[in-house]
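Attaching the record inline, Q. Sequence:
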Amino acid sequence: MTGGQLRLQASPSGEFTDPAGSAIIRKQPAAQKHTSTFDKGDYYGIRSPDAVLRVYKKPLRFGLYKADNRTRIWQEDKPLRWSTGGMRQSLERGADEQFFGGGEQNGSFSHRDKTVYVANNTNWNEGGYNNSQPFYLSSAGYGVYRNTFAPGVYHFGSPVQTGQQERRLDAYYFIGDAKKVIDKYTALVGKPFMPPVYGLEPGDADCYLHNANQGERHTLDALKVADGYTQNQMPLGWMLVNDGYGCGYENLPETAKGLQDHNAQLGLWTQNGLDKLADQVKAGQRVAKLDVAWVGQGYGMALDACDKAKAGIEENSDARGFVWLPVSWAGAQRCGVLWSGDQSLSWDFVRWQIPTYAGATMSGIAYNTGDVGSIYRHDAKMYARDLQAKSFLPALMTMDGWATDLTTKQKINQQPWVDGEPYTSINRKYLQLRERLLPYLYTLSAEAAKTGVGSVRPLWLEYPDDPETLGANAKYEYLAGSDFLVAPVYEDSDTRNGIYLPKGTWTDYWTGRTYQGPTTVNGYHAPLDTLPLFVKGGSIVPMWPKGTTSWQTRDRGELDYDLYPQGTSTYTLYEDDGVTRKFTEGASATQQVRVQAPTHAKASTTIKVGASVGSYEGKLAARTYRFTVHGQDAPSQVVMNGSRLQRLNSSTALASAESGWYTDPTTGITEIRTPSVSTGRSFTVELRK
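Structure, as predicted:
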């Protein structure tokens, strides 16, 4: 097929079937018309512009090679093996070949020498695979998707042995590096959906009506919890107000309106199916959470429910479908956030989820997360650390009302303020930081919708030539985009050891200290309020203003940029209305920022902001920009489009001024505030020595 893709089907009967039909595959790739064949004696060759498929004659085996017919991509070491209930393919394994994928595999992201189960189960803990997918990719330059709903087992030993529980082979092979493979795979089964902006904000879930764990309450009592978020200055994007296990709902329109008054959207989680969704959406529902009762053991039923739930929201409103589900199959990335289930809290719980979500990205799963602090148990310190660990995930939710405190043994809710100080302030710090970073996360969502590559990434995805990214240290950290390296603390300690920083300059987000990678940082001081967080040199990070607690109440007249100049770097911001589906018709805008670090001692740091290209409803005609420039010597003057900006004597003065700049003598950080600038015009800021 075109684009370096191959579909290989085999059947012992010679009859080719397609049990999955069109349920998983969105669009078949076009056939590659420019092919030729040749006979090399012991094998036939089928050549395309991208590769050669070898078909060995005796015994019948297959091998895929690059176009030169010398460089192996994959090679069967034995013929396909058939039994009454399954099929197995056996491949030679390269000396250093690595394997990823399999969907959500709890506790791991790299699978060499491991056995991966591709099926649905409800083991929510380490070793579980409730959101697995029949797909894997190899560092040898290919990926493979098995077009089936049948469970499978993939053993990545030597040889590699993969099989499904069916007497057929229907495999799509994709040639390219990891990102290209993920792009091609998701083009086949569905690109990740584009969430509404409130979907990236924290969510809260509980059962209010007929909650046996909490006593009799009413649906409108959810508004009291929403009050708590507002009073504690904590962002809240949506709330699930029922959970289906004997918990119904009442006063739905009033509840939806009350949540909207708190800048949050109504979500419902019910086991009663999808037949009520239209009326619920018309009453204000914008989030749907599926459960095991809805999707059975997953596979086709889960995918069908996910597609229908997303469509149910979109067919009855102008909103984007926003769906969560805990068991799924290939293609679920096109319609839902995958959620790793009902876990119990422990330090191990905090630890093993780190590679889980990063690893899911390797299967094109852009939105994968778990309950903050788990569901059944609560501990103030573990909750805070888990919230920190998840603060850079693209989806975040707290499950309330089911937990018992590990110390008091009493029932406890799990909103981020229930433990009092210092925990409330610590949790607020990370929730507000996440809120400020939504322009960055939202742009990553737009990127995922185009490329299939999610924002949470194992280090190997960005640094595939660095073997240390597969080591024990790198396993328990992740990248958010390519700019942030997050190394959560996952034990009862104020010290984090074994933080691996790959090639490049990395700046400690909190202290400004820089490190030159590759290096391993030990003894990092991380008291409870500190998440080890590093920013890559050259990063350009868009942010909303300080104090933002909602996308709706933010100061839309200001856009901030956190800058770490190094060499020449560019960043393209994506914007649209955040909630409707008009972006699919082109209603969006992009704006490029280019930063040039000084090339010699007397050179300037230059920031070039391009015109915003495109339009959407609500786009501003003008806005102020605030730049925070790290790691540079204090400038003697700052010039915008040839005119000097006023030098101020404090950050407080800068905050109240129309424009100007200030360098903090203790940190060396320079902050610049521009006057209001037309979004349709470009401008340049220079930090002159």
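The mean pLDDT is 95. The first strand starts at residue 5 and ends at 10.

More tomorrow.
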